[in-house]
Amino acid sequence: MKALLAEVWSRRALVASLWRSDVLGRYANSAAGFIWAILAPLALIVVYTAIFSALLGARVPGGAGGPARPLGSPIPNGIGFGFFVFAGMLPWMIVQQTAQNAPGSLLNHGATLRRFAIPPSVVPAAVVLSAVTDAAIAGALFVVVLAATGRLAPVRLLALAPAVALLAMMALGLGLAASALNLYGRDVAHAVAALLPFWFFATPVCYPSEALPLSLQWALALNPMDGFLQTARWAMVGGALPSVLAVVWSAAAAVGALALGAWIFQETRGDFADLL
What we know:
It is built from 13 helices and 2 strands. It has helices at 2-10, 12-27, 36-55, 81-101, 105-108, 110-115, 122-148, 160-181, 187-201, 217-222, 225-237, 244-268, 272-275; strands at residues 59-60, 69-70.
């Protein structure tokens, strides 16, 4: 892992070049440009808000001794449900975009990797950087809205820096493993796409964790995304402090995912020349 990170850092200018090419290429010929990075998650938030707060009529506990509260009504501290979902969607965007784009990234840059002496590790690193960029664009607008509505606490935003760094580490580990294994069989990309919705709905992005029955709380405790979502929501919209156990587990899972992904990538990179 240390050797791979050192390699990526030493070629950071190349990572930045691939990142610029990807980001600018996606928005260059569109009239809305970077606004699409905001409209896509916003559309999902509208759908999830409608489904979970209106159509399903789901309810969450109102707290100790309190009555049940519909998801569509304000959740603790007066946070609107849309704000609640948006704050959870931002960290999920990083994982989702990486999982969608990383598996085929080495294949997409195969000609470049064969022609030039470019370390292949910079490709999934650029994918993760692009995912973080899109989340940052959407997050910046969200911060402006929070400030305009008087809900912003700038000091709490400092907690986002280590959370995003750890989340990027986890995403990079997943991207390294998926991009390398996908060279041996294109089924990896399809499998990741099929499993991603299950992970999404197992993560409390569009519902409070209290909405899960007690019999399923263990699944949430094992989900490494929970600590990141709790931190993002506390930093942006307030509410209860993140669970120390959840945050520690998410951090450990991020380091473990990066270590495993780097090991898989380094063990298989000797075959890349033939597989590409």
